[in-house]
Automatic annotation (TrEMBL):
<keyword id="KW-0813">Transport</keyword>
<dbReference type="InterPro" id="IPR050388">
    <property type="entry name" value="ABC_Ni/Peptide_Import"/>
</dbReference>
<protein>
    <submittedName>
        <fullName>ABC transporter ATP-binding protein</fullName>
    </submittedName>
</protein>
<keyword id="KW-1003">Cell membrane</keyword>
<keyword id="KW-0472">Membrane</keyword>
<dbReference type="GO" id="GO:0005886">
    <property type="term" value="C:plasma membrane"/>
</dbReference>
<dbReference type="Pfam" id="PF00005">
    <property type="entry name" value="ABC_tran"/>
</dbReference>
<dbReference type="InterPro" id="IPR003593">
    <property type="entry name" value="AAA+_ATPase"/>
</dbReference>
<keyword id="KW-0547">Nucleotide-binding</keyword>
<dbReference type="InterPro" id="IPR003439">
    <property type="entry name" value="ABC_transporter-like_ATP-bd"/>
</dbReference>
<dbReference type="GO" id="GO:0005524">
    <property type="term" value="F:ATP binding"/>
</dbReference>
<dbReference type="InterPro" id="IPR017871">
    <property type="entry name" value="ABC_transporter-like_CS"/>
</dbReference>
<dbReference type="InterPro" id="IPR027417">
    <property type="entry name" value="P-loop_NTPase"/>
</dbReference>
<feature type="domain" description="ABC transporter">
    <location>
        <begin position="3"/>
        <end position="248"/>
    </location>
</feature>
<dbReference type="GO" id="GO:0016887">
    <property type="term" value="F:ATP hydrolysis activity"/>
</dbReference>
<comment type="similarity">
    <text>Belongs to the ABC transporter superfamily.</text>
</comment>
<keyword id="KW-0067">ATP-binding</keyword>
Length: 265
């Protein structure tokens, strides 16, 4: 299962915000979209799932396993989301329903896409909570989002995204709202889950130090265009564009900070 984005252009209110972006995610690959705020990385991810905001138009090509998905009807896109492609958003507080238990929310994805009964979905929700290393999963599924920590809420969001075993996970800055210690745990979890399942990953971030922990390749975006792309290790050692060099300077300060002597190992 491969994802191929070709000459993607996104316009909002007569302004081009993504201009000619192209990249590929082969089966099992872990690719990052990285850039500063306003670079178009999140809009590119939203376009893949047909979740662009009202007023936005997208042109070009987005092919999933050889099938053109840009411009698919909402019903077909809804079937694709969850079944084939899962997404984790930046802030779990906005992704989770505050008046439903987390178990019901994890189970809802299973009920919709796997078409299993409510009781079976709730039982499976406990298994999914355990899979993302939530403590006491049988108890935690009966809680509401506000009763969990930020890191726990993000793990619930990951469980929801992966419940139906998608072949591609899109993670849009999933650790930005978390403190450094919690962030490391969530990144480690994501890396392990993706590798163990052999799924593909598109990871969106503004931080190359974070990206280096989960992805092997990166697409650097600047003002809606691709500045450069390649292996993360090559971008770290021999960046060719000014924006990548700036990202490397920031990443180096993080990777070798005295409070983080072990780097990303």
């Amino acid at each position: 299962m491969s994802l191929d984005v070709t000459d993607l252009r996104i316009d909002i209110g007569g302004r081009t915000v993504v201009d000619g972006v192209s990249f590929s995610v082969p089966d099992g690959a872990r690719v990052g979209l990285i850039g500063e705020s306003g670079s178009g990385k999140s809009l590119t991810a939203l376009a893949i799932l047909g979740l662009l905001p009202d007023g936005a138009t997208a042109n070009g090509s987005i092919a999933w396993n050889g099938r053109e998905i840009l411009g698919l009807p909402d019903r077909e896109l809804a079937a694709l989301r969850g079944d084939d492609i899962g997404m984790v958003f930046q802030d779990p507080r906005t992704a989770l329903n505050p008046i439903r238990t987390v178990g019901r929310q994890i189970g809802e994805s299973l009920r919709i896409h796997a078409r299993i009964p409510r009781r079976e979905a709730l039982r499976r929700a406990v298994d999914e909570a355990a899979r993302v290393s939530l403590p006491d999963p049988a108890r935690i599924v009966s809680r509401y989002p506000h009763q969990l920590s930020g890191g726990q809420r993000q793990r619930v969001a990951i469980a929801m995204a992966l419940a139906c075993r998608p072949r591609l996970l899109i993670a849009d800055e999933p650790t930005t709202a978390l403190d450094v210690t919690v962030q490391a745990g969530v990144l480690s979890l994501l890396r392990s889950l993706v590798q163990d399942a052999g799924m593909s990953l598109v990871f969106i971030t503004h931080d190359l130090a974070v990206l280096a922990q989960v992805a092997t390749h990166a697409v650097v975006l600047e003002r809606g265009r691709v500045a450069e792309q390649g292996a993360v290790k090559d971008l770290l050692t021999a960046p060719s564009s000014p924006v990548t060099r700036a990202l490397v300077r920031d990443a180096t300060a993080t990777l070798w900070h005295p409070e983080n002597p072990g780097g990303t190992s």
